[in-house]
């Protein structure tokens, strides 16, 4: 198909035909550069990215986004903390885009280690139920960790973002 096969839009607000969208997606998935396809088809690059998200194949989406297991994250953080890798080297080696991702992983591991290594305070004599409360707290922390793992797995399996981004507006 060529671009001449598609009728022009009547107004700026008119939607592109689905065949036009699928042609753009097919070209990108065939290996053409997104910027080149967007320029050739006369659309904004962000529009093409949205079409890829909506109409692209799952195989292409998996190539674009790497999903790391907790064990992989732990190994990467260990390499960073022991000095085997710098942040820049880790970004290149593991195909990550932002240093902030690495820093979040390091902070999460440091926090987990601090919680695990924190000595349990001696329970006062009048607080006989504090051991039970501590057990409930540990149970709740395990449940939270399990839910985070479940969300990570769901995001990877269904290729959607479930968690709100940090700067998102609060819902009403």
UniProtKB/TrEMBL annotation:
Q: Which GO terms describe its molecular function?
A: sequence-specific DNA binding
InterPro entries documented for this protein:
Trp_repressor/repl_initiator (IPR010921), WH-like_DNA-bd_sf (IPR036388)
UniProt-recorded name of the protein: Transposase
Native organism is: Hymenobacter lapidarius
Lineage, highest ranks first = Bacteria, Pseudomonadati, Bacteroidota, Cytophagia, Cytophagales
């Amino acid at each position: 198909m060529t671009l001449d096969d598609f009728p022009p839009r009547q107004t700026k607000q008119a939607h592109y035909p689905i065949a036009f969208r699928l042609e753009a997606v097919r070209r990108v998935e065939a290996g053409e550069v997104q910027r080149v396809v967007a320029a050739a088809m006369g659309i904004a690059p962000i529009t093409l990215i949205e079409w890829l998200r909506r109409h692209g194949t799952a195989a292409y989406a998996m190539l674009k986004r790497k999903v790391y297991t907790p064990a992989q994250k732990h190994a990467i953080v260990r390499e960073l903390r022991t000095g085997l890798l710098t942040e820049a080297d880790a970004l290149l080696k593991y195909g990550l885009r932002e240093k902030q991702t690495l820093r979040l992983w390091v902070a999460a591991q440091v926090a987990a280690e601090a919680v695990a290594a924190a000595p349990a305070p001696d329970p006062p004599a009048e607080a006989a139920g504090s051991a039970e409360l501590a057990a409930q707290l540990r149970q709740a922390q395990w449940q939270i960790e399990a839910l985070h793992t479940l969300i990570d797995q769901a995001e990877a399996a269904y290729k959607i973002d479930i968690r709100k981004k940090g700067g998102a507006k609060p819902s009403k």
